[in-house]
Write a structure and sequence with these properties.
This protein is of the alpha+beta class and 198 residues long. It contains seven helices and four strands.
Length: 198
């Protein structure tokens, strides 16, 4: 499905909808919906800062395991950096707010949603290609090294290093009889991100 909203092209793939429906239908933990909501707030953080820096997104693509926002980044100094950092900052801000609320009310709902936001925020700060941390690493390298190809190469090397480390950890856990599907999936996902072209 493809349509325009205030000049921004929105693309939602069929597979994205199918994966979301499958996750909601099979979720027995009750974490799926809050996780999706936290991810939505994360993306709203990026969009809000794009609006602050007067940078309208050209397109928003929703595909399985990824939501990508493209646009001409702001020319203002540090604009691109703050737009990339905005998503994780929203999640970390929500974590702090919800954790304070948990301390006051002792509500497990607040604690669970706080934990979800913390995981999403920290995960997206990993310095790997395809995540906000990878974009931040690239922006930082670009400001110091006047060679875009070299910067991309460094980000790719870091991505493969992190992906290999996480995958190796998952395999070690499996060998020791402690299956951790989350670590395995994250490791493989990071390695795939390293292989994909922009």
């Amino acid at each position: 499905m493809r349509f325009k909203f205030f000049g921004t092209e929105i693309y939602i793939s069929f597979l994205f909808c199918a994966v979301i429906c499958f996750m909601l239908a099979t979720d027995r933990t009750g974490y799926c919906l809050p996780t999706l909501f936290a991810a939505l707030l994360h993306e709203c953080g990026h969009l809000f800062f794009m609006w602050v820096f007067e940078c309208q997104p050209k397109s928003i693509r929703l595909v399985p395991a990824s939501i990508s926002i493209t646009g001409s980044f702001p020319r203002k100094k540090y604009g691109e950096f703050f737009v990339s950092l905005a998503g994780p900052l929203v999640n970390i801000f929500l974590f702090v707010s919800l954790y304070i609320n948990y301390k006051i009310t002792k509500s497990n709902v607040s604690l669970n949603f706080a934990a979800i936001n913390l995981v999403i925020g920290i995960f997206n700060l990993l310095p790997v290609k395809g995540l906000d941390g990878g974009t931040l690493l690239f922006i930082t390298l670009k400001s110091r090294i006047n060679d875009i190809l070299k910067c991309e190469r460094i980000v790719k090397i870091v991505t493969f290093s992190v992906g290999t480390a996480v995958t190796a950890l998952a395999i070690v856990l499996i060998v020791n009889g402690r299956l951790n599907l989350t670590a395995l999936i994250v490791g493989i996902y990071i390695l795939i991100c390293g292989l994909l072209r922009e």
